[in-house]
Amino acid sequence: MTPAEINLVGYIAAACTTLCWLPQAVRAIRTRDTAAISLWTQGLFAIGIVFWLIYGVLAASWPVVISNVVALPLVLVVIAMKIRYG
Amino acid sequence: MTPAEINLVGYIAAACTTLCWLPQAVRAIRTRDTAAISLWTQGLFAIGIVFWLIYGVLAASWPVVISNVVALPLVLVVIAMKIRYG
User: Rounded to a whole number, what is the distance in Å from the CA of B24 to chain A's nearest CA?
Assistant: First the structure.
């Protein structure tokens, strides 16, 4: 496979693991119910996203960079809702 | 930075976004409460993990591969609990 084709697989992956946080953020805002959500999971995930971002830049892996730039604010919304509503 | 140093950043990222799913899976199993969790988020995330796995293999990015191999079963546990307890 060419690098462009490999990156295409990465972009599909990035679209899934990025856009997936939208329904969770919307649900948390709408229902104000975050009881079942683990703050450890969301917090550690947010820290991980920052490290993936650094890795993506260093490795010049644009699917990794773009994915994590978009996912970070969505995950931060979930964390904010979790802290607010418990 | 050397490729080894770049990969180290990737492994830290991978450890965070992989191990983070453990407290969510444990919480779902213990409390049987998954009401606040979005099935769309978890389902799309699981599909994304599979694509990241393929990307990681094709791009020979081992932090990506290992991270997603470990994360997949943990996310599947959360999905199974969500389907079971709603």
Answer: 5
Contacts by residues A2-6 (CB-CB < 8 Å, ≥ 24 positions apart) = A6/B55, A6/B58, A6/B59
Domains in chain B: ranges and CATH: 3-85 (1.20.1280.290)
**Please, which pLDDT band fits residue A68 given cuts at 50, 70 and 90?**
very high
Condensed to tens digits (0 to 9), the pLDDT of residues A6-20 reads: 999 999 998 999 999
Q: What is the ipTM of this complex?
A: 0.89
Name which of A5, A33, A37 to mutate to probe chain B: the one with the most chain B Cβ atoms within 10 A of its Cβ.
A37
State yes or no: pLDDT of B61 exceeds 90. no
